Every structure is written in structure tokens, then in C-alpha cells.
Amino acid sequence: MAFPSDRVYSFDINLLLSDNTAAYTSTGFSQVAGANAILDMGGNQGTTPLQQARIDAVAVIDVTAIKISAGNESYKLMLLGSNDPNFGAGNVDMLGELMLGKGAARDGVNMKDSVVGRYELPFMTQQGGNIYEYVALYIVEAGTAPSISLSAFVAVLVEP
């Protein structure tokens, strides 16, 4: 499903974070073809110094369904970075986060209810002096029987 937006992003199937095959009803990584969607943004870890480039990008998230009817559902969409393709303990950093859900359940003041539509989450692969090779979308769900359906992909921003 395409949503109107004031910006157009180039789609690359290799940068797909979620294929919207099934609704997400529990906390975990987003999926493509039934497997965790871990994207390799490039780089050569086996050299000294590391050969990685900072990448400025946007996670384009098209929410096609979101349950907020119980009044307490929330969905944290966390864009994570790591130099470990398994995202092992102590090797992960937050590159960006978007919180959706019932207004009263969302962090912030006087938040409105989230709706279906396109959400854009800008991020960069460099945080705290570290450049991360791998990125993934992790969804933390809370509330009564949460359920969200979405497709998502990474669009690399052009250099100014």
C-alpha cells in the first residue's frame, strides 16, 4: 500500500526491513520472508583501520494496520546498529526510535493516537564515534493484545 508523502525515496529490495507478510503481535526483530531482517550496510571489518563509511539514511515505515482499541497499546520501532551480525549482548546501539500507539500509552505529553500511514525515521550509522555495519528494526510491543502491520525499508540519503 502506497501512502502520500511530500518526499519520494528510492526503493532497493536489498534494504527491505519488513515485507508486511504478517502482523507483529510480540516483541522482536522485523521480518522478511519469515527471517529476521538484518541489513549489511557495507564495510570491511577485517582491516585496520576499519573500512566503513558513515551512512545517512531514512527508515521508511508504512503502517497498514495498528491496534489501539484497548487504550493501552504502544509500539516502539527501534532502529538498531551493530558490528556483530548476530546483534549479540553488549554489541548493539540505538540509531533511532519511533513510538506509536494509543496517545495515552505513548511517551510524551498530550500525545495523539497513531494512525495508519507513512512514518519516516532518519538515522545515521555513526553514533558515539562508532560506525556500525549492520542495522535492524526491533519492535517492542506493550499493552493488551498489541498488533501492528507494516512494511519498511532503508533509503540512503544523497550527499549534499
Summarize the structure.
The strands form four sheets. Strands 2, 5, 7, 8 and 12 form a five-stranded antiparallel beta sheet that branches. A four-stranded antiparallel beta sheet has the order 1-13-6-9, with no helix packed on it. The chain has no helices and 13 strands. The chain is an all-beta fold.
State mean pLDDT (0 to 100 scale): 93
Classify the secondary structure makeup into a structural class. mainly beta
The CATH topology assignment is Jelly Rolls
The poorly predicted ranges are: none
- Helix share, percent: under 10%
- Report the order of strands and helices: EEEEEEEEEEEEE
> How many DSSP H or I helices?
0
What is this structure's SSE topology?
Blueprint: E1 16-19, E2 28-29, E3 31-32, E4 35-36, E5 38-40, E6 56-66, E7 74-82, E8 92-101, E9 117-124, E10 126-127, E11 130-131, E12 134-142, E13 148-156
Can you give keywords for this protein?
160 residues, mainly beta, 4-stranded antiparallel beta sheet, 13 strands, 46% strand
Please describe what this structure looks like:
The chain is mainly β. Helix content is 0%, strand content 46%. It has strands at residues 16-19, 28-29, 31-32, 35-36, 38-40, 56-66, 74-82, 92-101, 117-124, 126-127, 130-131, 134-142, 148-156. The strands form four sheets. Strands 2, 5, 7, 8 and 12 form a five-stranded antiparallel β-sheet that branches. The chain has a four-stranded antiparallel β-sheet with strand order 1-13-6-9, with no helix packed on it. Strand 10 and strand 11 form a beta hairpin. It starts with 15 loop residues before the first strand and ends with a strand. The mean pLDDT is 93.
